[in-house]
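ok trying again, last paste got cut off:
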Amino acid sequence: MSSLPPVPAGQETFYYASQTTFWIFFRQARALVERALGAQLDSLGLALPRFKDDPDGVYLALVPSFYTCALNLSSGGVTSTTMQGVSEAEFNVLVHPKSQAARLPDLTFQEFLLGWEQHKLIGQLRLDVITDNVGAVIGGREKYGEHKFRGFIRYCFPLPNDNARTPVPFHVEFSAYTTERMLHEELVFSLRSGVGALQPVSVDASEVVVYGALPPEPQDGTRQRAIGSRRNHFGTFSLYTPTEVHPAQVPSLQYGPCHNAAPLHYNGKSIPGAEEWPKQMRDRMQQLLTDAPVAAFMLFASPPVEIEPRPFYIDPQ
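nice, full thing came through this time. structure:
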């Protein structure tokens, strides 16, 4: 029997209060991705899946996500409840454990998105993750093996509280910076994307399998092991698939200089090389997403837990 990866006591399971996550799937040539990521995947015992309708394609995902969570935090012997918001973006690639290749079902990429891969072997390896929440950096790195670092993020997407009078297709604007000043020279990347005129189908994509590694970066004298986790979303996903008749709107991606990235400190020590991680994410996105067409969009948006409509007069005039 194998052991479980270690996690801090009292943090075995994490609960989200609300979530909006938008997966933008890109298709890239297998040869290019293998050149860029082959050694890393091989060292972790991971491989790129082959879908029966596209054996020469590899699928990557850029994933802007927005969460809220309630936490009990202790300071000076006093514990209090706080509500926190987290915004982040993952840059992922679809992979599977090499050792489980014989168990993979023979699926198309579309069938995978529909949730047919019930073995839950194909998952998203988090190549780079930028977030604006320090706790999310620590938790993601320590518990889930994410190659994760802090940034400063400006974002906008449609909300029920906009009280729109007509339907508004989902779209997102997302810009990540190295410092809170959010100057142009500190831009990591900016994204503008939306589903446009594409119509959704409801799918059951949960559980979403994600992969990472412990430690999150290779270290001399330490074996880096792949780990996985399953994310349970309580609701349906909206899947938007472009066709020749109804193509996808091309996302706008712009990349910045990534200047002034700060060191990342943990347990009183700085993590070597962290100042270069924003550039690493930018460069990897440029390398793997340039000229890569959109294969699909997928959206999960948790519903409101309460709705309070406009008031009314008790006594009519």
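cool. DSSP finds four helices and 17 strands in the chain. The mean pLDDT is 96.
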